[in-house]
Design brief:
Helices cover 63% and strands 11% of the residues. The protein has 10 helices and 6 strands. It has helices at 2-25, 44-58, 63-75, 78-85, 88-94, 113-124, 138-148, 169-208, 212-233, 257-288; strands at 30-38, 99-100, 105-106, 150-153, 160-166, 240-248.
Amino acid sequence: VARRWRLVLTVELISIGLAVLFLHIMTYKYTITMQVSPADSGNTAQRSSIGGAFAALTGGLTPDTNRIELYMAALTSIRVATAIANEPEIMHRLFDKEWDSATQSWQPTTRGPLLALASGLEKLLGFPPPKAWAPPDAKSVLDLLKKQVIIDFVPNRPLVTITYRHKDPRFGVEFVEAIHEAADAQLRQAVLYRTTVYIDYLLKELQSVNVVAYRDALAQVLAQQELQRIQTQADVPYAIEIFAPPTASPKPTTPEAPVVLVATGLAGLMISVLLALTISVRPATAKLLPSKYE
């Protein structure tokens, strides 16, 4: 019995020790949260009439919902990633492990023994060779956006919650603001380009149309496109505006030390009990087996 208790205690201490080592090795991260909502275009009557028609055609969807979906798609698009990649200060802090401030250049990260062992096993098992290292670029940012930026949207609720985790809470707030501004700018530029093309086309048509009714219809459409272009050029959020500014959690949220310690302790206890039961069953089984000398 004393042997089994020693085994349980030893395994439990090893489990807790591994958990403590894990907590010391892992990088603690803060959670940054921001909420956004559709921006008010300022043309209530036009939005109301368009909204009713749009809802009838799309089964209950509204222009606000459509704008939110476009915004969520823009957040993890290559254009937003390219805009971030063109900001050296953000890139240096986003990929700080690969940026050497002493030489002011990108350097491949040094691989530890565990990564080297894993790479050797993959090569031995016939896995495809890893991609050659290259300085972080827009594709690197795009992969990061898709993996680390969490977008939460509930239909019929005009709010989008954006969550991001980083070891530096101040930089995390700046990064979330940057991707939001880049996504809104992408939607703004798309509408600005389209309205500019429409306006050029309508101006050419007005020069060739002589029928008064047609000219009046074209003039009304032209006025609407001019209004939309003015809205895209105003120095205010175009499609989406910040409802609750990005804020960082007061304390690191991952990893959760109590959860890690309790989970590891329970796992160690289960393993130690199973080992103790196995050890206790073996002698009992051996006594029941007949001896060859009997």
